[in-house]
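Researcher: We plan to redesign the surface later, but first we want a full-length starting point. Tokens attached.
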């Protein structure tokens, strides 16, 4: 749970028990996520997850796609089936299909992406084709509309026809080879788009279809104008041909994966183009699975296709414009139903026959008599023993189970056996086994008694006659009474009155007294509960009383308890705790009475406090986290003792009951000024608790509840700052043993004293909260930073003026604590965003806070605040000499010229190997405004960066294999070779390219080396040595370029690389008229 979101405090219970740093949520800027994916290891899980997050952000902000798609297109033409290729294709599909973009924007995106998509159509990669063809199906109507209404370039029409013919060939499989089923399936969906565009919509019928037919997304042949480049006659002929191909495929295809998209396209064609509805209806109604059955397709596949056909016909029946074909469709559905039922019966019969064929009869082995004497004896023995079990008649009531189901009988038997103990059941089984062995007819009835069978005694032969009282006459009552001899004797004795003295009552036992007292209280309470159903008195202008007339029994019972012995109070307390939820109001009345009697001197001192603690201490351990009665009860108390606040503090430290404790403490602070200070200090101390769950709940209780105008807020702010300033006291962790350097001197007592005085002076400058409770605070260190800063950071979310103190404290911290503070502060910065106050601090941050400011700029840039940060960073760079790291977060927002200006500073960071990933991320961000070739050329141009760091920067580019592919490097090398001055590291880069991409050796030999020769590369010693090494590395491809060297330099090459001599001689000998050149260059050493 975040401290900077308006969450329910009860959600803090879901926090883990560890003091883990709060995690930053992924950046909201999709471009930042994409740059992070480019900088990640290619094809890694991290790159995949980052691309998924970037896709989610682009779905939320599709308007960002058109300006970024040109950058993405470079990742799909080369590089194979990579994560970046398929992610880029998804983004293109999002932009032209699902994104909420206007039609004009979609047209621009389509024209920009179409050439690259067409390239992928000829790659031959199955996964790529499955991804590209659906995109081309989406943009086909857009391209059709452009070509139908404007006379565009002929190249677009050529690419359009190429796309159409290629995909249709995939669908029809004209090559005769068994093409990939998935590719053919998506190709048939493309054919549906072509048929729709080549067919005119209905001129009458559903007006909704007419309006749809004229929309941009449903372009068709009627949109072709005279200015368009398309031919209406050719398109119409093509549409009719494809209709025939579609119906033919329906009857001839046997692959379900192809039949399903074909059948599913029929309803859309019939609904959107009513002119071909008769063809669609007739084709579906006449279809039979004969071709599939003849091809040996499994019955389950045939049944699946049948269901698809049935769904399609049912869908068409429900469409009103096709009502004229309803009879034909209904008849086809009946025939199909009969056909499917017959097929199901036939399949079941065949399955049963196959199952029967797999079973083998139990025949005896050859040579064995089916009924041998031994088997016959065994059978006879079993049949004889079966008769000795007994009939079971007489063991209990007879129940006819012939009309009961087997499951019901089994359930009845099991339920009966459940009432039998395991020992009895074991004895019964042993008895049955004994009966089987001995052949006795009856076993001992062990189960009879537990099952309630045979347990009844002997029934009397003659039962007494039962008399119905309703049939007795009134006079017969006397006769019935006279039948009792005792009554008759009592009637005959005379009654005499004598002097009677009531004997003294017998003394009751203490237990009896307690029982009577408790019973009396219970009767009073029950009587009062009966009065609760009475209506409340009508509201009047008269003063309201705390006790309503129907609740007077509470006051009576409270006064009985307060004016009696201690045992009554104990009884009352137990009575309240037995049902505190319903008796909490009575408890308030009783304790108010106790408090009043104590004040006027009627009761003994501490009666109120002891009874209150007795109730609270017993009820709190079992209080429900959602309890609301305790807060009401404490609010109605006449006085809040300090001991109660201490008890509530203990409750707050129990995660299961903490919500109740925090709620009560918060209400006490708000409504009880006499104890506000103690309760507030208790809450503030809990805001620095060692357990983060407790700490977060305390902070939420205080910060979220009270606003700026609350009387508690100044106290909270002062306390938070005093805790924050304690971090300045943190010291680096050192060993206990004093370490003395060689040649140094031990620290003297005077120096230690001076250091201590300095610390004291520093502490005196820090704001301290007098009387603050630091019972939970540990010593300031990097490990306890979170405990010290969370309260202040949570306040800074609502009081951004506290950010000044945070940035002021940061430079005074030791490095370990600074790093921990940065980690804790970043979620707050991410939650705040680029607020004016934060921008003001970043512009005038104190000296020593550079690292923190760079982290803040990086987080804000990831949240999409790049445009705001660009001007800020530029102004700061103009005023101060800052680290180049400041530029990295906003480098993607700079234009190309500014990027080239800042590039040497960024490259110079590579002097520290730990900055390699940071530079890699910066390069990925630069690709928003420049191509990979531009970046490689800019790195080779003369700049302010050292040569060693430039070499490392080139290595970083080579590590981004997804971006710097072979075609990109070839383009970059060609451009660098055309520069007026050859860069010093250029030959080294070419060697690295040759080692990485062997296929570029001919390109280097035929295009790069001749340009280097033309620039007289031998005049630069370092470049010349590299040139010779490069020529040897790519030989024999380099022989042609070497022959362009002057003879002297060629001899030098041969002298430096003698192994090339034979190859060069053979290469030169193959040239006509080369004998003289051989003698001149190599001499007569042959």
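Model: Full-length starting sequence:
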């Amino acid at each position: 749970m975040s401290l900077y979101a308006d969450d329910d405090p009860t959600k803090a219970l879901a926090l883990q028990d560890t003091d883990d740093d709060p995690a930053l949520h992924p950046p909201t800027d999709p471009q930042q996520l994409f740059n992070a994916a480019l900088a990640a290891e290619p094809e890694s899980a991290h790159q995949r997850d980052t691309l998924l997050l970037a896709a989610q952000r682009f779905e939320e902000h599709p308007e960002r796609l058109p300006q970024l798609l040109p950058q993405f297109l470079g990742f799909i033409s080369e590089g194979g089936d990579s994560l970046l290729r398929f992610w880029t294709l998804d983004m293109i599909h999002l932009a032209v299909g699902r994104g909420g973009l206007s039609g004009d924007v979609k047209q621009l995106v389509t024209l920009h992406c179409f050439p690259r998509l067409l390239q992928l159509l000829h790659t031959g990669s199955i996964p790529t084709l499955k991804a590209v063809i659906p995109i081309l199906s989406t943009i086909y109507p857009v391209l059709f509309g452009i070509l139908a209404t404007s006379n565009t370039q002929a190249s677009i029409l050529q690419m359009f026809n190429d796309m159409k013919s290629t995909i249709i060939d995939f669908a029809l499989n004209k090559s005769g080879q068994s093409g990939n089923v998935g590719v053919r399936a998506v190709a048939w969906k493309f054919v549906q788009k072509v048929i729709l565009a080549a067919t005119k919509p209905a001129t009458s019928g559903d007006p909704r279809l007419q309006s749809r037919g004229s929309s941009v997304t449903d372009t068709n042949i009627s949109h072709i104008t005279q200015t368009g480049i398309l031919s209406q006659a050719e398109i119409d002929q093509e549409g009719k041909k494809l209709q025939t191909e579609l119906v033919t495929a329906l009857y001839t295809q046997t692959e379900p994966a192809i039949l399903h998209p074909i059948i599913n396209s029929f309803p859309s064609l019939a609904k959107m183009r009513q002119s071909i509805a008769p063809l669609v209806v007739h084709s579906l109604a006449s279809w039979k699975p004969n071709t599939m059955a003849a091809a040996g397709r499994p019955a389950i596949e045939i049944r699946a296709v049948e269901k698809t056909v049935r769904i399609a016909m049912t869908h068409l029946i429900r469409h009103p414009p096709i009502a004229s074909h309803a009879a034909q469709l209904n008849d086809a559905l009946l025939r199909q139903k009969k056909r499917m039922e017959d097929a199901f019966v036939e399949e079941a019969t065949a399955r049963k026959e196959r199952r029967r064929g797999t079973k083998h009869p139990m025949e005896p082995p050859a040579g064995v008599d089916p009924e041998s004497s031994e088997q016959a004896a065994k059978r006879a023995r079993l049949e004889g023993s079966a008769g000795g079990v007994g009939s079971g008649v007489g063991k209990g009531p007879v129940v006819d189970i012939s009309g009961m189901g087997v499951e019901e009988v089994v359930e009845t038997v099991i339920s009966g056996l459940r009432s039998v103990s395991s020992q009895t059941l074991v004895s019964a089984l042993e008895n049955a086994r004994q009966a089987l062995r001995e052949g006795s007819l009856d076993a001992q009835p062990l189960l009879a008694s537990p099952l309630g069978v045979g347990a009844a005694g002997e029934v009397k032969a003659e039962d007494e006659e039962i008399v119905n009282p309703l049939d007795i006459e009134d006079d017969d009552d006397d006769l019935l009474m006279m039948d009792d001899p005792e009554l008759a004797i009592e009637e005959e004795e005379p009654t005499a009155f004598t002097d009677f003295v009531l004997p003294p009552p017998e003394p009751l036992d203490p237990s009896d007294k307690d029982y009577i007292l408790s019973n009396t209280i219970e009767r009073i309470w029950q009587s009062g509960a009966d009065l609760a159903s009475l209506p409340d008195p009508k509201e009047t202008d008269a003063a309201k009383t705390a006790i309503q007339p129907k609740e007077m029994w509470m006051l009576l019972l409270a006064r009985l308890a307060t004016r009696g012995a201690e045992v009554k109070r104990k009884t009352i307390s137990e009575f309240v705790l037995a049902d505190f939820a319903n008796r909490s109001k009575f408890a308030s009345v009783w304790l108010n009475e106790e408090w009043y009697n104590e004040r006027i001197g009627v009761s003994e001192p501490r009666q109120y406090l002891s009874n209150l603690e007795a109730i609270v201490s017993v009820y709190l351990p079992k209080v429900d986290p959602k309890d609301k009665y305790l807060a009401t009860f404490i609010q109605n108390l006449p006085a809040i003792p300090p001991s109660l606040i201490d008890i509530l503090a203990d409750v707050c430290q129990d995660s299961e009951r903490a919500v109740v404790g925090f709620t009560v403490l918060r209400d006490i602070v708000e409504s009880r000024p006499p104890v506000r200070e103690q309760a507030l200090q208790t809450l503030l101390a809990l805001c620095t608790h060692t357990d983060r769950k407790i700490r977060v709940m305390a902070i939420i209780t205080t910060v979220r509840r009270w606003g700026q105008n609350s009387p508690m807020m100044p106290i909270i702010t002062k306390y938070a700052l005093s805790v924050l300033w304690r971090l300045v006291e943190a010291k680096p962790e050192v060993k206990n043993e004093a370490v003395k350097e060689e040649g140094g001197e031990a620290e003297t007592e005077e120096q230690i004293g001076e250091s201590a005085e300095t610390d004291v002076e520093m502490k005196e400058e820090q704001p301290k909260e007098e009387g603050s409770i630091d019972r939970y605070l540990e010593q300031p260190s990097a490990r306890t930073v979170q405990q010290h800063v969370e309260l202040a950071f949570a306040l800074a979310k609502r009081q951004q003026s506290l950010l000044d103190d945070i940035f002021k404290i940061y430079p005074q911290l030791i490095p370990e604590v600074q790093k921990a503070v940065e980690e804790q502060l970043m979620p707050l910065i991410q939650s705040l965003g680029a607020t004016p106050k934060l921008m003001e601090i970043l512009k005038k941050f104190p000296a020593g806070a550079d690292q923190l400011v760079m982290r803040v700029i990086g987080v804000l840039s990831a949240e999409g605040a790049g445009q705001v940060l660009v001007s800020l960073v530029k102004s700061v760079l103009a005023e101060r000499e800052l680290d180049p790291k400041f530029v990295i977060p906003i480098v993607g927002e700079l234009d190309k010229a500014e990027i080239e200006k800042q590039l040497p500073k960024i490259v110079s960071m590579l002097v520290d190997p730990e900055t390699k990933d940071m530079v890699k991320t910066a390069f990925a961000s630069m690709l928003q405004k420049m191509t990979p070739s531009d970046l490689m050329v800019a790195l080779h141009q003369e700049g302010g960066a050292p040569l060693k760091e430039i070499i490392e920067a080139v290595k970083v580019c080579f590590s981004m294999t997804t971006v710097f592919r072979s075609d990109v490097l070839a383009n970059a090398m060609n451009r660098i070779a055309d520069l007026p001055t050859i860069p010093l590291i250029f030959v080294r880069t070419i060697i690295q390219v040759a080692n990485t991409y062997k296929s570029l050796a001919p390109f280097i030999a035929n295009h790069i080396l001749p340009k280097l020769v033309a620039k007289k590369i031998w005049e630069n010693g370092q470049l010349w040595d590299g040139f010779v090494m490069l020529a040897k590395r790519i030989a024999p491809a380099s022989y042609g370029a070497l022959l362009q060297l002057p003879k002297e330099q060629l001899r030098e090459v041969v002298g430096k690389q003698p192994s090339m001599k034979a190859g060069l001689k053979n290469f030169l000998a193959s040239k006509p008229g080369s004998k003289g050149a051989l003698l001149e260059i190599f001499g007569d050493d042959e």
